[in-house]
Amino acid sequence: MTTVTMNHATMPAHWRDFVALTKPRVMSLVVFTGLCGLLAAPGHIHPVLAFTAILCIAVGAGAAAALNQWYEADIDALMKRTARRPLPDKRMDRQSALHFGVGLGVFSVILMGMATNWVAAAVLAVSILFYVIVYTIWLKPRTAQNIVIGGAAGAFPPVIGWAAVTGDITALPIALFCLIFFWTPPHFWALALFVKTDYAAAGIPMLPVVSGEVATRRQIWFYTAIMAVAAMAPVLLRLTGPIYGTAALLGTALFAVFAFQVYRRRESDPALMQPERRLFKYSILYLFLLFGAVVVDRWVFA
């Protein structure tokens, strides 16, 4: 009797694996902030072109995620929370992921340029390249400040959405970029505190691994203070009105309460890190709330 052994790594990938490469859950926040930038922008864009612009932002984000997983396949295999992704789980070969990511990226940029304008397309291209080259390849494996600088990659969508309508970049999209940029460190380091063993096992120099939990908690509090200034900047610069101002004030105050609870704790047992988990979950809701408030505010007081 002959036993036939199938090489699981060479089997054709399921379409669900390609979808998983795009990190759809992460993409939802990217798409939402891009949509808010588009809806808050002055001027008019045809609904079909608006849909196309948001589609391009989503596809571009998916391209960046796919290329990130292509490059980090070996690292992902060492971490519990990423070991079941398509590449480390051998449900897809790396070449397919590379071709998929590059194809999505090129398609999204060209379609954005043809459907809207080349300013939006250029910013989209920069965001993809920044995430893949600057953050994934250069910063992440080399410095504990990777997420600080690399946070710029996730801050581009509202700028892209705005540029898709107007063809330029003005003060409000820049302010929204800064909000996401300074929001990223406390958001991501809250997660890193309760998954630091994963990063340590993979040799990734995340701040809790390199500098310890006390320093990380201090940095979360420090960047929360900067983020608070960035959150109020659109109001102080008179770029938005009282609806956004109220949402930013109340939402940021609650964010600060959660961040302070994280700052003052010293427990290192991941099972006890409820404040860290609470801050991480709330930080996602916080960004949804503030960007939604920007749109409502602009529509009411435009």
UniProtKB/TrEMBL annotation:
Q: What does this protein do?
A: Converts heme B (protoheme IX) to heme O by substitution of the vinyl group on carbon 2 of heme B porphyrin ring with a hydroxyethyl farnesyl side group.
Coiled-coil region? none
Misc: Carbon 2 of the heme B porphyrin ring is defined according to the Fischer nomenclature.
| Residues passing through the membrane, by range | 26-45, 51-71, 92-112, 118-138, 159-182, 220-237, 243-263, 284-301
Q: What is this protein called?
A: Protoheme IX farnesyltransferase
- What Gene Ontology cellular component terms go with this record? plasma membrane
Q: Which reaction does it catalyse?
A: heme b + (2E,6E)-farnesyl diphosphate + H2O = Fe(II)-heme o + diphosphate
Give, as one word, the top-level EC class.
transferase
Q: Which GO terms describe its biological process?
A: heme O biosynthetic process
